[in-house]
Write a structure and sequence with these properties.
mainly alpha; 0% strand
Length: 135
């Protein structure tokens, strides 16, 4: 069994995970062994356990994922700028693919802001009348 986590270690790790997600890193990048770490980070299974059991962390994580979409939009714009200086058709296609994958991900991370769905709401009640005609 792994080492136990103190409340302080848990809080620091959760804060680090959320901050780095909001900065555009993936959870895999954050938890990668040998990656940059300023605090002790848990295995992925423990992160999922925290998300299931800790409502405050789950809310912070959800906010971080929405902010991650904004960071990814910035990266996507960088890819679009790189296309101006692309030296080959292969490089252009590669950048287009990165843009398309990022666009797909961003639409799902924060659909309210970046999704293609238009929401319509009504302030007053709507009534529907169905007339049935008999022959």
């Amino acid at each position: 069994m792994g080492r136990q986590w103190t409340a302080e270690q848990t809080t620091l790790a959760q804060r680090e995970i959320c901050q780095r997600l909001a900065d555009g890193e993936s959870l895999s990048e954050i938890l990668r062994p040998g990656g940059k770490k300023t605090v002790r980070l848990p295995p992925r299974s423990l992160v999922y356990q925290w998300l299931e059991q800790d409502d405050d962390f789950a809310r912070q994580y959800q906010i971080a994922r929405k902010l991650q979409a904004d960071a990814l939009v910035d990266a996507m714009m960088g890819h679009a700028d790189q296309m101006k200086n692309a030296s080959s058709n292969f490089e252009v296609k590669s950048l287009e693919q990165k843009i398309n994958v990022t666009k797909w991900l961003v639409e799902r991370l924060n659909p309210e802001r970046w999704g293609k769905i238009t929401r319509i709401s009504a302030e007053s009640p709507i009534s529907v009348v169905v007339n049935r005609w008999s022959a």
